[in-house]
Amino acid sequence: MKWKQFRLKTTTEAEDMVSSMLAELGIEGVQIEDRIPLTAEDKEQMFVDILPDIAEDDGIAYLTFYLDMEEDKEKVLGAVRRELDEMRSYLDVGEGTIEESETEDVDWVNNWKKYFHQFYIDDILVIPSWEQVKEEDEGKLVIHIDPGTAFGTGMHETTQLCIRALKKYVKKDDVILDVGCGSGILGMLAIKFGAGYTVGTDLDPCAVAATHENMEVNGIGKDKYEVMTGNIIDDRKVKEQVGFERYDIVLANILADVLVPLTPVVCGHMKRGALYIMSGIIDDKEQTVVDAARAAGLEVLEVNAQGEWVSVVAKKR
Q1: CATH classification code of 2-105
Q2: pTM above the 0.85 mark?
Q3: CA distance 207 to 180
Q4: CATH 3.20.20.70 fits 152-316, yes or no
């Protein structure tokens, strides 16, 4: 289906009020582009492996909205321009110019799948749930993965660093905690490597559904894992549900800026002698994470790198 696309140039000062004005005119789904720096709260809500580099704020914002091809665009745009003119008396709305183009619907949830194909992590075959295992790969350790809208295919260096450390250290019947579990790939592999039970937490509600689906397609029963939504750093209910001094290994494939406040918290959930495997660390943040681990009373056992990414393995004394 085709849509008429409109890109309105305004200011960051006015973007919220202009968005509200568009909504009042019956325009839904406004997309905002600006260069306003992310707040700490914004960063907590970003489920990505690295934050984007954002150029310095130039005070300009672009608001993109869409109209059905059959809709009277002149009537709508006329109303938008009149409202902008009225707003100029008390607010800097900038140029207020509107660029017009056409676009088509894209299935963003599934469109990425054409770029995700089976691959190896050492001797582990990771295969999308919509592909078949090739005859020559039968008999190898295979995991089927469909991250859906949750983070975690295993393709990123940070995940691979975690997987290698997990494989090295996990023991039979270990209890594993995966903070920021995403698609559930690390918990799933922990079970495949011999762990007895895994618990996953994530801020993104999509992670719960993704983990359940991936565990099921890999033949892992619900008696072997649980997954929950919430912030283990400051949510007491989540902390209690996770349980204290319970885990043999804690995994955290998150950003370094989150690992620093997370580290002293997860220590309370680890058994004595338990291991803490951290990843998601860009190389210039390595020392920051190592210092945070030592400040929490952990012994740093090893630091590994792949590309520009680093993982740290530490032990509770």
Answers
A1: 3.30.70.120
A2: no
A3: 9
A4: no
Q: Which residues of 118-149 are buried (b: 16+ CB within 10 A; e: fewer)?
A: beebeebbbbbeeeeeeeeeeeeeebbbbbbe
SS3 44: helix
Angle subtended at Cα 240 by Cα 238 and Cα 245, rounded to the nearest 5 degrees:
120
pLDDT tens string 53-87: 556 778 999 999 999 888 899 999 999 999 999 99
Task: For residue 266, give both structure tokens.
Answer: 């997860």
Cα distance between residue 242 and residue 282, in whole Å:
28
Sheet of 141-145: strand order equals 119-121, 124-128, 141-145
Please report the pLDDT score of residue 54 as a whole number.
59
Q: Which residue has the tokens 């406040």?
A: 261
Q: What are phi and psi of 96, to 5 degrees?
A: 70, 20
300 forms beta bridges with: 314
- The CA angle 16-23-62, to the nearest 5 degrees, is 45
Domain with CATH 3.40.50.150 in the chain: 152-316
Tokens of 15: 């973007």
Main-chain phi, psi angles of 227, to 5 degrees? -145, 145
Do residues 10 and 18 lie in contact, with contact meaning Cβ atoms separated by under 8 Å? yes
